[in-house]
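BUG: 3D viewer hangs when loading the predicted structure for this chain

Environment: internal workstation, default settings.
Expected: structure renders.
Actual: progress bar stalls at 90%.

Input used:
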Amino acid sequence: MSGRDQAPVACDTVAVTGPQWAMEIWPALGGALVAAKAWHAGGWLDVTPPIGVDGLAERNILNLGGFALAPFCNRIEGASFRYDGAQVCLPRNWPADPAVAIHGLAWQRPWGVERRNEQRLELVQAVDESGIDFRYAARLTYDVTAEVARQSISILNMGTKTLPFGLGFHPYFRRTPKATVAFAADGWLEPDARCFPLHWRPLPPDLDGASRPIEELGGTDATFTQWARQAALTWPELGATLILEASTAAKALHVFVPSDGRQFLCLEPVSHVVDVHNRRHLAHYGDATPLAPGETL
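Structure tokens produced before the viewer hung:
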């Protein structure tokens, strides 16, 4: 960026800008966070991986800066589960593993702009589709203050029966060779080869809250339990630390650090653990939230 008061804006994205933060959002493409920048050391610092013009042209939400998760988080095996004596079915939306539903529904559907100003954007989405048992109205907000960039999401059950709902965020943060991450948790859910949780493992005391090099976590795609709802991502090369804070609804933190050379990492605050809809023995570590018709999470 060439000036403090400017943020890159594509033709169908919306900028939310303050003195310390700038976010670019793409309402029609899953309400995605395209990019986030922070004012640091006299210039704009990329917090999410930089996205060029070619990247925007691809219109691939998985290559942007992040998206919201609703009405469930991460994977559901078989794209279905039993609840209250009935089978609940979802679209199979992950070609790499055709037997799953992943990341919810909201990221693959457009959001509408309800209201906006320079520092705040409110988006809305309603889903009522044949073949999908979840019917909901959701609200996604991006806003910046003097020192904080904030995302929030809520969801209203618009259906006729109680169902278990979940919410979360799937940000893609910038990754540098010397980057470190620190957060407190009591354990993690050891995943299988398809990233479904198998067993809970306690976190060694020397790792609980300790700063760890990102490169040591390469290949991690797992959920951490009883986390302190705060994580610190430090970029020593840039002289900067990002503090991620989540609300009490975020019962778990899912961490994804690719090992194939992709230059990002994901620290995902989520309201339930992976596939808890089918793996009820893991509900203690973060269950979905039953919402009766008209109730909100």
